[in-house]
Amino acid sequence: MKIHRNFMVITAIFLILGTLLTGCSESDDTSLKVVTSTSHLEQLVQTIGGNLVDVINIVPAASHPGDFDASPGDIRKLADADLFLWHNWPGEVYVPALIESADNPDMEVVTIEIQGSWMTPQVQLQAIDKVSETLSRIDADNAAEYEKNAEAYKDEVQAAEVEVKAMLSQESLSEVNVLCAGWQAGFIGWCGFKVVKTYGLPVPPTLGEIEELIGLGKEAGVSLVIDNLHDNPDAGKPIASELGCKRVVLYNFPGVDTSTKTWIDTFKTNVDLLLEAVSD
């Protein structure tokens, strides 16, 4: 009898677990499966889609798309996807072959192409609209939810912009001459700094170019050198050292660490790093 009771208990447990697992599978099957090429697109889909989407990103947040090599695992991600979002940036050369290898005729491929720095509020607001429109078109039954989430997020971005602009206005940034990595130029210009010259786009500066930048920096009175974490982050080190000036390394993608979990976190962290450098 004791053996029989134990068997019944064990059977009941497996039935309950089976029901729970089946329920999870059904729930997952109803989610829109989205794959993104960068963490910019990933966090937009997560924020706008909420629990209606299942999003997987390809290029790690700390990496640069131009340095990325796709793997068989990435092909599998696209093979199971309903939607793939990418930027069509020059560095995303791996994407066409990846799409072809996935051989998924049911997957829709959408390019979220916006000019300008993705770390500026105006680009983020445009991206919110484009991602929201895409999700609403593909999953029309949940369009109202996507649109509601998008509007709420736009309010947050605009509030962060107002807050940051107030902080930046406390400093005379137009009088601060900087040399910066090309990938950061748009954001640095938005902040109000005077960009004397950029470097490292699309390839690291040569020794001759570094010497030229040092000479230009001395002539222009450059007081800050700004590097890009995701691509040749030490490129400006010898320049700042020779000029005897401050140097900061900024983020260009969200999701790298605890201080950059979201786009707004990353936006504010970059501004904090800049203001700390100019206020010392």
What does this structure look like?
The chain is α/β, with parallel strands linked by helices. The chain folds into 2 domains: 27-162, Nitrogenase molybdenum iron protein domain (Rossmann fold); 171-279, 3-Layer(aba) Sandwich (Rossmann fold), CATH 3.40.50.1980. Helix content is 52%, strand content 14%. It contains 10 helices and 8 strands. The strands form 2 sheets. It has a 4-stranded parallel sheet with strand order 2-1-3-4. The chain has a 4-stranded parallel sheet with strand order 6-5-7-8, with helices on both faces. α4 links the parallel β3 (83-86) and β4 (108-111). α8 runs parallel beside α9 (237-243).
Alpha-beta classification = alpha/beta
Estimate percent helicity. Answer: 40-55%
Distance between the termini: 79 Å
Q: Give the ordered list of helices and strands.
A: HEHEHEHEHHEHEHEHEH
Number of helices: 10
Q: CATH H level of the largest domain: which superfamily?
A: Nitrogenase molybdenum iron protein domain
State the CATH architecture of the largest domain.
3-Layer(aba) Sandwich
